[in-house]
Records
---
Amino acid sequence: MMRICVFLSIAFAGQALAQPVINSGGIVNVSGNQPLLAPNVVFAVYGQILGPASIVIASAPSYPSSLAGTSLKFTPTGGGAAIVPKLVFTESIAVAGVLPSTITPGTYAVQVTYLNQTSASQNVTVVARDFNIATANGIGTGTAQASIANVNAGYSLTRFTSSTSPPVPGTFTNTPAHSLDIISLWGTGGGADTANDTGGSSGDQTATGNFKVILGSQTITPGYAGAVAGYPGLWVVIFTVPAGVTPDCFTPLQVSSNGQLSNSAILPIAATGQTSCAGQISTSTLSKLDSGGHIIDAVLSIGTTTSTIAGTTTVTEAVGALFQNFSASAFLPPFAGPVVGPCRIFLESFPVGGKPPTLPDSYLNAGTLTISGPGIPAQTVGTVAVTSPGGSYYYSKFPTGTISNGGTYTITGAGGPDIAPFSVTQTMPPSFAVTNLSSLTTINRTQPTTINWTGGGSGTVVITVQTLHFDSSFTNTFEAFVACTVPTSASTLTIPAAALAYLSPVTPGGSDFAQLTVAAGPAFAGGVTTGVSIAAEQFTPALTNGGTADFGSFASVIGVGQSIGVQ
């Protein structure tokens, strides 16, 4: 059986000896980077001065309780004896360990001791099971670090494209998955297995742990879910890709264990006989995503938005353009969210005041942009300089009544250091109105919500419900998006309660925030779109130094939105 070590390390430059510090939110499942732990889980603690400057790694399966001067303890907050985990590795900014299978679910105060100096405690929650999927980027997002039993004798890794050369026996080959492939998902957090604590395995726990694989919109009972002998804390979940599955580079993937959902990952699925999942996406772009390269995304829009926030209504007519440079790790997560009916869910968290993990690394320079069309004589689009991410984006507002519904507008780029000259045209929808907007001031997450509209032309309607939640100490921000896409001709959409359940409760007027947005735009003409962007015409401008943008769109939009409460 193939075995993949999921215990990742981080290089570090030395620090002077002082009291160890655990980062806020720095105790996570090592596979999915999620904050819940479980018995027999491999976990990571991130911080400063947690261990020696150079990493020290213990040998499986006999992990020690103290390693290179580092030890940890988990003390029940309700009282009781402290639990001492075994350690996998230690270094100054990260320590990894394995919780014993005997630990009882509950809340624990965690402390790190290094060279007799002990950190302040930080609480963490332990649940019965919380399997997380290991991913290619090592941080729990993007492509699953999965293998295929029927490819290269199991020495395979699921990727968007296949290896260019035939596999060498005993080495790994890359390939997308296909219908009827047998997939092994590797990770940790599957739950207690006392045999595995010392390197054994109690075997299949599929039924005991109520394991399910959620692939796109399908729920699959795996053929096997259990700990891997020889590696304390390492688990594998094995399932078969259903016959007739729809090929999709960005098929969302999650595992449910004891009702607890894992991190969201991606399983690239290609058509039978194909070595790449490429369709509208070029193989070169997919290769960038496989190798962790950078992705260029051009997002252009013009439109009218009527927004009501805390009872005040504002009409904004504007044009904007973002030429974005993403790392693969930042670009992929929105594609991995769960799918419920016509809706895709996207969740992210980040420190208050910090950079959201899915923001681009920088904005690119396209030189001078001009906009022209009905009511808008050719004029320059303004720029807005920002420091995080670095660079400038393009944005100009117009007086109310400037943009003409049904009018055709052209954005022209003169060319700049990053983006070559271009010209792209799009036509506004003729009209659009949400007819029951006044009844949508509060959404109940346990009940389906229906939105009705008129107009919108022959394109697409995108409905987004967003919540922004802060933890009690205002240390971390949690965002949730439910984005649903349907043809405008449908005239109505009912968002399933199963999709709304991912939102956070929000009371109007408090520190948290929730918003409903409904927008009509042109029909999607190919390529891909994230769970939070508006479907639009594909547009990939040339780059000044050669090549083209990887993704792009020009949307002409009529939208309405309002702040809401979420129960």
Note: The domain at 140-184+208-283 is CATH 2.60.40 (Immunoglobulin-like).
---
Amino acid sequence: MDKDIQSKFEVAESRVYDAYPLTPPEPTLHEKSLQLHARMLDTRQPLDAEKKSAVWVVHGIGQQVPFATLEQVAEGIIKTIGDANVVNLLYREVKVDKTVLQRVELTLQKSGTQRQVDIYECYWAPKTQGLVKLRNIIDFLWDGGTRGLINSFASFQRALFGEMVPFKIHLRTPAHLLTTLSVLGALMVINAIILATGASIAGLGDLPERSLVSPLTVVSGLASAVAITFGAILIIAEATRPLRSKSFWGYTVRNITWFGIAFTIADLVVSAAIMGIIFWRKWNPAWLHGGAPYLQTMANVFIFASLILVVLSRMHRRWKLSGPKKVSAAKRADAKPGWFGPTLFYLAFLFHLAVAVGTLAIVFSAWHGDFATSLVGVTILSVRAEILSAFGALHVEGAFHVLARVFRWRGWVWPFLAIVSAQVRLLLVEFVGDVAAYVASNKVDCFDELRAKIKQLAKESLSAVYSAKSHDGEAFEYEKVCVVGHSLGSVIAYDTLNRVIADDQISTQTDPETGKKFVDGPAQIVKRTPVLLTFGSPLDKTAFFFSVIGKTTRHIREQLAAVVQPLIENDRIRGRIHWVNVFSPSDIVSGSLDFYDLPQWKSDPAQASKCIQNEVDDDALVPLVAHVDYWSNKKVWTELLKSVW
């Protein structure tokens, strides 16, 4: 390659394509016979056209920005295949019929052969901005959770390939659902009581009583301390995680973070229960009231300490990224984590754990009277005395007084609660909100028009890629079109591919020998789609939580839904399109896709090729954060590169 793709780039001139109609008008009888004869002879091959591949990708949930997905896909492919195998890199705007698209053009080489790969994105994020409210999300989560519980204990069935197929649900499914609903209920209780307490302090209400404000403030402060210290663990884990999971450090990061999740969930549920009893039963225990100053000070200390660790972690990561030495991805993957990053991570975990240990110690002290209370006080005074003697009493004494006032101030609880509330709201609105707007279509709701716009946008974009006519002949521009979707984007990609296949099938003729329709229509969608690649996909969960099983044994609604999904209605189509699903055990959104295959296929070697190829990305190892780590790992792009040639 003659130029450095990391420092130079080239914008090519815009290009306009003629387009083949993907759903042509009904042909005459003579035209039907000509089409049938041509199809039987299989003469419709690309004529004198360069073999090109397209990658059409749909981004997932969150605050996506234009071209970010194109950048991530191109970076992933280049990193995986290597800079030396990228012959050319161009950026271009194209127009296919009336649809304007932007693309990244990569010319790749492998084993002496070259292939142009054009990358397109379906950018749908602006469609949902500001339309989903918090109450819609809560309704969505409750509806999905309760439906999931019903499906866990009932006979869950799916309409697949002409039959109603029962699936056995693992016992962990209802346990996970109950945990999720418990956390959602706890957040609702805590938020409601905090609002009422704030109103009471401001003189806008009389609930709770003034005497209950102090214990409620203390408990909510401890809950925010647990949440913020866990957030510090998560941020530092992502900043210091290894690029490869099969190492002691990788296992440590994953397991400690999972422990933090479990502890945070337990704390939220217990805190909500205690606050509910205090608020509604007017419970004001002496041990909680007596330990309030210590508990509040301890919570503030560990919150500030965790925030300092987060700042140090960010600075350390920025310093590593801006370092003068360029290190290859392979060397970075094999490199040891050093000492600074792991030290910050372990300290963050200790602070998280210390909130629980300190709470138990202080509550025990207040419960058992002066002796235990004085024991805690003696410990604090002893540490203080050692520091005074080591650094000089005069200066440190003044610092202690200042810090003591800072950490004892009760007002800190409100900005800390605001931080937690803002992050929870951001997570729900920006991430779960997109899912709620697109997925919850099993009942009449206010998002029907929004869903229609997203589906139309996706269909126009993918149809333009499939229908582009080659400049070099009367063939299609792309020999292969790879359909890729991340997270909710995998649901959109699945729906859109089904839609364009169904449209192509409408004008498909019938084989006179078998009496069945040909697999391909005029646009040859099935033939030209080598792979449907999903990663971080919630498709199994949406099928389970929001199934449209009716109350009767005929299941007409579920069977009608399968009509517009050729990928689960026609096994001949499934046999032609390879479906690869990449997931991580640390990603709570995704998982193995099992509800789109017939169970007997897996045990039948002749049918096994139709099954979804579920692949684990072990390098997406940090719980919760794993949902977006696929983009920076090689697993997805390795699977994609297998299909572009």
Note: Residues 498 and 565 are 5 Å apart (CA to CA).
